[in-house]
Input
Amino acid sequence: MGGQGNLLATRLLGEACLAGGIPVVASEIHGMAQRGGIVESAVVMGDAVSPIVSKGEADILVGFEPLETLRAINKCNTHTVVITNIQPLPPFTVAIGQGAYPDVERILDLIRAHICSLITVEGDKLAARAGNPLSLNMVMLGALIGSRLIPVDGGMLKETISKTTKQAFLESNLKAFDSGIACSTPFSRLPA
Output
């Protein structure tokens, strides 16, 4: 959803890859993001010919909102690991009383039915505890790094965060990043 920091997270991850000598390409879709619409981005590491992740091609899906994670499940396959924030950000129609948000546990069950492994994160709570409710993106980046599923070093990403984010938010961003690492499930490699 627009406003959750997806595009900044993508940029930081891409810059950390480049700093670490990892070939990377990124893409983004952010049509009506300023109005709370969807924001989707992809980071492809390694020898990629396209920055687009097609249906069933994602190794990892990081979702900042449970229903939006489910919406992107078509990118996944039975070997995909999904890392998702489990705290809803209801769409506009729900906020004005013209719809109902589905049960989060039901959403998570639907996600689990399509993938290999699910890592759930109370991202909004962790961001608030870090001192900045808007640092959800840093929590989710931390959870990704904590999973050990990508070849990006946590120190390199912290350095990128330190160089790139505004000084006023640096302390809370780094704290949020660390809390995401702490809550993630480490893997030794992507599931086969």
Observations:
- The chain has a mean pLDDT of 87.
